[in-house]
Amino acid sequence: MRLYEHESKRVFEQSGIPIPKQFGVVHSVDEIKKLDLEYPAMAKAAVLIGGRGRAGGIKKVTSLEEAIHNTEMLLKLRIKEHPVYTVFFEEAVEECEACYVGVTTDPNTFNNVLVVSASGGINIEEVAQTRPETIIKREILNNDRALQNNIIKEVTDLLNQDLQLSNEQKVILASIIDKVYRTFQEIDAKLCEINPVIITPDNVVAADAKIVLDDNGLYRQSKLLETLGITSRRHDVAEPTPNEKQAHSQGFPYVDLLPSDITKDENKLYVGLVPGGAGYGIFSIDEVMNIGNKFFDGKVVPINFMDSGGGPPQNQVAQMFHLLMDYPLTDIIITSRFGGISSCDVFIRGLIQALRERHRNNQRIIPIYGRMVGTDLPSAKNYLEKAKQESPEALQLMEIVVGNEKIMADVIKEGIRRGFEIKKEGSS
Amino acid sequence: MKRIPVDQGALYFLIKQIRPELAAYIQKTKKIETVIIGLGRQGTKHAGLMKEFGTNVTAGVSVGRGGTRIHEVIPVYDRVKECLKEHPNIAVASIWRHYSGVRDVVIEVIESGIPIVVLITEGIPLKDVRDIIVAARKHNTLLFGGNTPGIIFPPEGIKIGMLPDIFYPEEKSKEEFGPRGVTIISRSGAILYHLSDALASAGIAQNAVLGIGGDGAIGTRFRDIVPLIQQYPNTDLIVVAGEIGGSQEELLAEDIIAHPKKYPIPIVGLISGANAPSGKTMGHAGAIITPGQNYGTFKSKKEALEKAGVTVVNSQFELVETVKEILQGWKYFSVERYQEKMIKTWEEPPKKVGWATLITKVQPNNLIIAGYPLKDIIKKKTFIETAYLLVKGNFPEVEQIKELEQIALNAIKLPTPEVNVIEKEDISKTIAKYLLQDEILAKYCIEESKSPPNQVMFCLGRVAGYLASILGNKNLLKNIDLKQPFSHVIYKILTGHTVIDEKKSGVLEAMIVASVDHGVTPPSAQATVIAATVRAAYEVAVAQGVSAITDVHGGAGAKAAQFFKKCITLAKEKNIELAEAVEENISIYMKEGKRIQGLGHRFHTRDPRRDILWIKAKHAGIAGECVEISKIITDIFKRVRGIDLPINVDGVIGAIIADMGLDPNLAKAVFIYGRIAGLSAHYFEEIASQPQMRRIDFSEAVYKGEKSRKLPT
Questions:
Q1: CA distance A307 to chain B (A)
Q2: B324 in the same domain as B456
Q3: Residues 8..67 of A with a Cβ closer than 8 Å to B: which?
Q4: What DSSP element (H or E) covers B324?
Q5: B485 preceded by cis ω (within 30°)?
Q6: Per-residue pLDDT averaged across A234-249, rounded?
Q7: Which residue of chain B comes nearest to A382, CA vs CA?
Q8: Predicted TM-score of the model (pTM)
Q9: CA–CA separation, A303 vs A292, rounded Å?
Q10: Lowest pLDDT segment from A72-81, A327-336, A411-420, B265-274
Q11: Is there a single domain that holds both residue A46 and residue A142?
Q12: Active-site residue numbers of B?
């Protein structure tokens, strides 16, 4: 989970790293007057995506009028598709020298890695591509809570070859490097980055900050989240969508693949997925896409990721189907239950429960196509047969292949074909 | 179908690569020992499923549950260290603990030197994972996971983890599996079902399926495990099932390009996530594309692997086609037979699972305690040794016997509670009263809660003391010498004799030993076990069991002895043959509607304890007219009544007691005293191996203890 810049700065401030003076956060123009602004100040769009500066998400303001005007502009802005809901103000810092300090986990070795560079303030990935020699990397082979002094000294000296700092400034920079690493270890971070660290004649400050927390460590960082006022888990680049929030509250992982304000193309078939575990959840999106491209002129659009594995209880299975049938975008649901550890019986009961509830309440029912195989198959089969006789109307749009004579890809293909058929019938 | 020997399989191969000395041991024993750590709902359930699949689940580890058992036969230890002390050759550990408390135990396992660790736990904080990885590197551990579904080896029938039994091995013949096939190495679990399904639809076998874990940082990466499997001679092709996020696939590709000789076997890469949006985590912590990064995407992985000469696919259809082409259409088994087998597996009604006891196997005309025939135990072993065997499953060492006897003798010497005995009160109730009022016993059991055998010995000593009081032989206790054998003390207490008759003492002990146990179904055992399910104190549960020994159950000996004596008196009065007197008395009993006790048995037509007691009595010179009647009564009864009711152990004990010139009521005291050992064993077994307050169907108990064996000499 990524923190906003102003949140990251608060974390660093608490660790004793100097940051520009913070004036506060607004969600609307009216709130600006309540802030005690000093000019010149920076107005910054609070977004989780990079490239904000280039998209015009940062403005310098020298008066209240400018502050109001620019905030209005910022709140209308979309940065790489992401709307701006929040703007924050901080002291404008005079820039002399700038450098980069970051700590992350190496994706190859999983060791922590300290990255510093005298080329601060610009995209570090770009620097890594164009001028790799300016980047100093140190892989930390132990997992101690602090860096060894000799490493801090070594990288500070290397940085100083370019920066030419005073002794005082050098001490502050060294302590920032030390503190960034300690913070990284303390708060269960995946990334702690200050870019740039700005060196002014009389100070060294963290001008921009980025922290990505390890989702697995969040459970033991409740104190930190509390101080930041964060109550729900967000993505690395965006706040969760309403569907995602609902799924989360019901206890299963779900991701929307399309933006929530998308216009539906009536020529295309939008496929919702209740696929099984996480890995197959990702793979089934590809399956649907590939089959759509190969056999249906690319007119098939998978709309969601879902992890329905691990043996969810009946009621949760029902909620999974409800969620997708409540979603106006969905044309058809493709589902697969490979009951390895989980039970086909619980699954089919959950699915039928959802359909019966919707039929009773006159809610929209959309076609479901799928396959089930594995544990508890006989009882699942019996239940399905009986349910079909008992409530044929509620279940008329459901077709579940029982057994493994067809592999799942064949079932998906057949399901999509049927989906187009039903769609055609419906529109004619 | 016959499985392949473990030392020809892929798991053995992996162990051999990292711990050759352990591999040498496995080659000798043909067993790969495994331990399961973390016995919550999941861990416990899968311990059972692994065992059912064929895995040798040697032990479990769960803090606070040391000394108990799961699935009734797998011993549990508090600590990894304690477990390894008992089972030093464990080769694989699976870890199922919750992410919040798993770090320390994984490191403990790694440091213990176990070569293969399967970390099932999902969602471990990255920082803890780094500590785990640092330890694994230091100790050269093959760490699968975290967040792995496990590893499975279909040809040899071993799985560690939660993968279901759907992966199909090569069929060498109609009776025998073979070791060859495709090895699948995957970051995800659920996808494996669909890979296996697709491959099997084309007759392609899987000889090993290795889940390396879906988390962002894991122990063994593709780059580490693929080269190892490349050397396994039975693998014809490797499917690497990767997904978006991280740089594992790219790293593997780099290594293939740098060291092509390490990769002689063809690899097919299946990468998922071609259509995943960036910046959103999809179920797996590892499967996330970070915006702006130049690795971790479907494209970067596909390009890197293709550059290394690996065919990359992104669908089931492509996978099947590509694998078929590389293997030139080779089929490892008949697809029809595979589908039949799967249908059979899925359609099979759930197995009715009994519950296990390791104490006594009850067969018609045979009783076996922990593998030893009871008749041999009666012949050769003392009561103390037998009581120990019941509780521990093995006889005590010679030097232990003395210590055990000392505990019992000391217990006798301590003061007994003052208990009022009502006239005609059942002796079982009297003993139960003593047990419940005995504060010394209660305190001892609390202090010695960790040592069931000590509690049993102490209890047997205490009950001997009660018997002395009940039988009016309390004065004898004053002169008890701690150096004499326990059996002599029992002889004195029960008979009131001050001089030991070795032979008689031996017969008396044999009768006690003959009474020790009859499995879980007798009402007394049921009563004790029920008390154990609610975790009643040991002496309370024993008192419950003893109270259930009434005239209906266990009390037949005295009544039988009285009948035998009547017959002898009649024969003397009328001066007729014994047989004639027996016949006449049976007729009288029939007319009066009275039952003759000591005849008939639920299981045995020829009670396994009968003959050895007769022989012992004869050798001791005790066998007299009562024993004589006990031998002929069955035939006479059949003649008169037309029903075959063989003499049972109660009847035989009653006869011997009577021939010894003792009070026939002593028969019941002997029975109760012996049975306390059995009740104790059932109590401790229940506590150690079953959940609290379970529902019990006593008829469903299955003996799963030691196989039949000969008595140690």
A1: 6
A2: no
A3: 48-50
A4: helix B316-326
A5: no
A6: 84
A7: B347
A8: 0.82
A9: 13
A10: A72-81
A11: no
A12: 284
